UniProtKB/TrEMBL annotation:
Protein name: Bicarbonate transport ATP-binding protein CmpD
PROSITE patterns tied to this protein: ABC_TRANSPORTER_1, ABC_TRANSPORTER_2
Enzyme class, first EC level, given as a word: hydrolase
CDD domains named among the record's database cross-references: ABC_NrtD_SsuB_transporters (cd03293)
Source organism of this protein record: Pandoraea terrae
Gene name for this UniProt entry: cmpD_2
Domain of life: Bacteria
Length: 266
């Protein structure tokens, strides 16, 4: 991705004593999240890492306004969330592109849904495509793109409305190792040019430490925040930083939490 000064207004996120319960078809109650507290400052990149089933995606759905809390409060810029927030964009693990629409049409879909002036957003869509290295691909269809390229389009779609908050739910989980490595570098580059607030869900400790300003470690279900780790590493971060003793120590700190919980074993 090329550096691109796309103007964004970042937001704060305040999560207070949030709990989420589900009821199974058999009537059994499952506590997915338990008394979760998180404060995210405007422009911060937060990575949330934890084992499968710990409530990471549930947390993201609550912040996105796609589900309601069972208890507690979530606010964006001080405004309590009761539905999908207009300042929020979401990127899922699957790109969810519509195969019958071109790349440009997929990016502009949120604009059409909100009945805004499509033509006014075409230049921004093209600017985003150039920022993610897909200049000239606007007329292509999803089937003509690789998995990494489709995920770049999904990121453009999330950014087209200039969201102050970008929520990413394991966006690189379905990609091969080499593509994932490139996407991690590309995301860092784009975020440094945009500087909006990001909450990034991942299973990968390495990925979390490399990308984030802070890494939040969640316990096995019911999910709680076991560790809030500030990552004090210079930016932009290069791949060679994986060999930095400080980077390795951050990774070991997170691993020790999982080992203590029985998630990882020596």
């Amino acid at each position: 991705m090329n550096a691109n000064p796309i103007s964004q207004t970042s937001v704060s996120v305040n999560i207070q004593q949030v709990m989420k319960r589900y009821e199974t078809r058999e009537g059994q109650e499952i506590l997915a999240l338990d008394r979760t507290d998180i404060n995210v400052n405007p422009g911060e990149f937060i990575a949330v890492v934890g084992p499968s089933g710990c409530g990471k995606s549930t947390l993201l759905s609550l912040v996105a306004g796609l589900a309601k809390v069972s208890a507690g409060r979530i606010a964006i810029d001080g405004e309590e969330i009761r539905r999908a927030h207009p300042k929020t964009g979401v990127v899922f693990q699957s790109d969810l592109l519509l195969y019958w629409r071109t790349v440009l049409d997929n990016i502009l879909l949120p604009i059409e849904i909100k009945k805004r002036d499509r033509a006014a957003f075409v230049p921004k869509a093209e600017q985003l495509l150039e920022a993610v290295g897909l200049k000239g691909f606007g007329a292509k269809y999803p089937a003509e793109l690789s998995g990494g390229m489709r995920q770049r389009v999904a990121i453009c779609r999330a950014l087209i409305q200039t969201p102050g908050l970008l929520l990413m739910d394991e966006p690189f989980g379905a990609l091969d190792a080499l593509t994932r490595e490139q996407m991690i570098m590309d995301l860092q580059s784009l975020w440094l040019s945009v500087k909006n607030t990001v909450i990034f869900i991942t299973h990968g400790i390495e990925e979390a430490v490399f990308l984030a300003d802070r890494v939040l470690v969640m316990s096995p279900r019911p999910g709680r925040i076991d560790l809030d780790l500030t990552i004090d590493l210079p930016r932009p971060r290069t791949w060679e930083m994986h060999r930095d003793p400080k980077f390795i120590e951050y990774m070991q700190t997170v691993r020790r939490i999982f080992e203590a919980k029985g998630v990882l074993h020596q």
